[in-house]
Amino acid sequence: MNDLEYMRLALELAERGAGWTAPNPMVGAVIVKDGRVIGQGWHETYGGFHAERNALRSCTEPPQGGTMYVTLEPCCHHGKQPPCVDAVLEAGIRRVVTGSDDPNPLVAGKGIRTLREHGVCITEHVLREECDRLNQVFFHYIQTREPFVVMKYAMTLDGKIAAYTGASKWITGEEARRHVMTQRHRYSGIMAGVGTVLADDPLLTCRIEGGKNPIRIICDSRLRTPLTAQVVKTAKETPTILATCNADKERHAVYQQAGCTVLAVPEKSGCVDLKELMKELGRYGIDSILLEGGGTLNWAALESGIVQKIQAYIAPKLFGGREAKTPVEGRGFHSPDAAVFLKDSVITRLGEDFLVESEVRQDVYRAH
Q1: Interior CA angle at 331 toward 324 and 312, to 5°?
Q2: Per-residue pLDDT tens over the stretch 245-294
Q3: I want to staple 29 with a disulfide (CB 3.0 to 4.6 A). Which of 51, 179, 215, 301 is the partner?
Q4: Res 109: pLDDT
């Protein structure tokens, strides 16, 4: 095996931490000595040992003189755990191969510099693109302190998210719906509008064995969520935040008694100011959000500039109907040049359905 193959193994290990490490990054580490893998580990859960220490703890023989492959630059500061560079140096690792640079201001090259100063041979940026992609959420959150927002929707091939009657279950098949559940596990929060709550009364939980429920965030400008809604009735088991412009403290108290957190947010154009909401949610430590709203909330999110990624599940069906709802409604952009432009699209087949994932071109987005 060579550097690329060992780093691919480290990436596979890092992925095992998906859903459990936030707001920390996902990291994998592999230790090689004399052409043999003698240790491997990943960052398993927030607050637990980092990947480097887990790999060192798993070694089947002394790691002195070996090479460590790690998907992210080793940390050099005290947080929930002591600096990983100290563990690497104490273990006598001779060479360290990294994938991504750590943009955390507490690290940002200092980990690599410390290792070099102590005589460790460094090779940087092996499979950097793949390693960077793994931690899009962490990189965005550590630099902006706002959540990474993924707009997700399921639609027919003619662009409908429901029939003209409003019926929407089910657009996609079981495999696509299972994939959605893995995304609910992966991201810290899930956001919907009060319109979705009133129409569908969703639970917004992760329904896969061993999965983690996201924090539920309901955008409810006037605080119209029924107390009988599932998100309210289960708020003591699954955290629920109601983001509202309603300042009535007595009304807040009713929801708070049910276990909800009521977050008062400034108003913009008669609705919750989504940019301000992102700042507040970032302060709560929510590093990522799966946006499962309807066309109205999706348009507001795009218009406010909070979306980083799109996940479109497309079913080979045609609903038709001039009045049938579409994924993005609202006023819309005034011309093709003013559109939200996407890039780096990846298409995955899920049973009979297709998932199209695209990054939002932030250079064009911010210029609007």
Answers
A1: 55
A2: 999 999 999 999 999 999 999 999 889 999 999 999 999 999 999 999 99
A3: 51
A4: 77
**Residue 335, number of CB atoms within 10 A of its CB:** 7
Give one DSSP letter per residue of 111-139, joined into a string.
Answer: HHHHHHHTT-EEE--TTHHHHHHHTHHHH
Q: Which of 197, 190, 243 is nearest to 213 (CA)?
A: 190
Calculated CA dihedral for residues 106, 107, 109, 113, nearest 10 degrees: 100
User: How far, CA to CA in Å, does 199 sit from each of 166, 218, 282?
Assistant: 9, 13, 28
- Coil, strand, or helix at residue 23? coil
Under 8 Å between Cβ of 206 and 213: yes
The three-point CA angle 156-320-290 to 5° equals 35
How many CB atoms are closer than 10 A to CB 279? Answer: 14
- Whether residue 276 lies in the annotated active site: no
Q: Hey, CA dihedral for 193, 194, 198, 204, is it positive or negative?
A: positive
Q: For residue 70, which phi and psi values (nearest 5 degrees)?
A: -140, 135
Task: List the structure tokens of 286.
Answer: 């929510």
| Backbone dihedral angles phi then psi of residue 28, each to the nearest 5 degrees | -125, 150
Closest C-alpha among 298, 355, 353 to residue 325 = 298
* From 52, 146, 292, 303, the catalytic residue: 52
For 65, half-sphere exposure in the C-beta direction (CA atoms, 13 angstrom radius) is 6
The first and second tokens of residue 226, run together, are 């029924």
- 143, with CB counted inside 10 A (0-12, 13-18, 19+), is exposed
Q: Hey, what are 267's tokens?
A: 């108003």
The pLDDT value given to residue 368: 52
Q: What is the pLDDT of residue 82?
A: 80
Nearest to 261 by CA among 241, 278, 235, 245: 241
- The parts of the chain modelled with pLDDT lower than 50 are none
pLDDT at 366: 57
Per-residue pLDDT at 269: 86
The DSSP result for 42-61, as a single string, is E--STTS--HHHHHHHT-SS
Residue pair 31/16 in contact (Cβ under 8 Å)? The answer is no
